[in-house]
Write a structure and sequence with these properties.
The termini are far apart. Strand 2 and strand 3 form a beta hairpin. The chain has a two-stranded antiparallel ribbon with strand order 1-4. Strands 2-3 form a two-stranded antiparallel sheet. By secondary structure, the protein is α+β, with helices and mostly antiparallel strands. It has a domain of 60 residues: Alpha-Beta Plaits (2-Layer Sandwich).
Amino acid sequence: MTAKGWRDTVPGGWIKEAGNALEYKTGNWRSIGPVFIPENCINCLFCWAFCPDDAIMVKDGKMVGVNYDYCKGCGICARECPAKNKALVMGEEG
């Protein structure tokens, strides 16, 4: 059996236009989401780096909130927060 190269694979789908994710607001999928506690934030931006939906809002190098239009509530941001008192906790967002 010979391993197939990428040219031999069956296409499953494609992105017709790069950068089109902003056209689709998917935040209403979640049942809970991250709640930001600014006084606990150490501005490491791990939440921003690990968020798969680019839902962490950053201004001037500091986390300023969560864009709930795109957050799906996966909890990765809360899990990756290294602060002793977490700056992001999963729950009912305000």
